[in-house]
Amino acid sequence: MLPEKHIFVCIANRPPMAGDSCGAAGSREILERLQMQIMEKGLETKARVNGCTCIGPCEQGVNMIVYPEGVFYTRVTPDDVGEIVDEHLVAGRPVERLIYQAPAPQ
Ligand code: FES
Predict the structure, then answer these.
(1) Which residues does a 6 A CB cutoff place in the pocket of ligand 1?
(2) Which of 20, 42, 61, 65 is deepest in the core (most CB within 10 A)?
(3) Atom 1, ligand 1: residue with shortest CA distance
(4) How many C-beta atoms surround the C-beta of residue 69 within 10 A?
(5) What is the spatial distance between Cα 101 and Cα 106, in angstroms, rounded to a whole number?
(6) How much is the pLDDT for 15?
(7) Residue of 91, 37, 38, 25 whose CA lies nearest to 64
(8) Which atom of ligand 1 is nearest to the CA of 14?
């Protein structure tokens, strides 16, 4: 059975000379916390988490996308994981303060 929601967390590590990356910003910890909380809260049939490669913008990592909504979160920290699980995955309310903001056109 397919889960209701699928979360992709960028775990890419770019070479230091290539700039920032989600891996260097601690995305593995976020991925593991998400997996742990999903298990602890019995959400395994509702949500699945996978690591993925670069989804850009790397300098704003840790980045993740929640489908099917396509909500793109940036600058996610380990402290944000509980709120994402409770608000977005359980209550269905995306965490507005973490949603990607496109730069204003110049
Ligand atoms: S390294 Fe994560 S979005 Fe590029």
Answers:
(1) 10, 12, 14, 21-22, 54-56, 58, 61, 63
(2) 61
(3) 21
(4) 11
(5) 15
(6) 87
(7) 25
(8) 1
Pocket test for ligand 1, best of 30, 63, 65, 75 (most atoms within 8 A of CB): 63
Whether the CB-CB separation of 11 and 31 falls below 8 Å is answered with yes
CA within 13 Å, CB half, 47: 27
Q: Which domains does the chain have, with CATH numbers?
A: 5-98 (3.40.30.10)
Q: How does pLDDT run along the chain (106 residues), one tens digit per residue?
A: 789 999 999 999 998 888 999 999 999 999 999 999 999 999 999 999 999 999 989 999 999 999 999 999 999 999 999 999 999 999 999 999 999 998 888 8
Query: Tell me, what amino acid is at 56?
Result: G
- Distance from residue 86's CA to the centre of ligand 1 (Å): 25
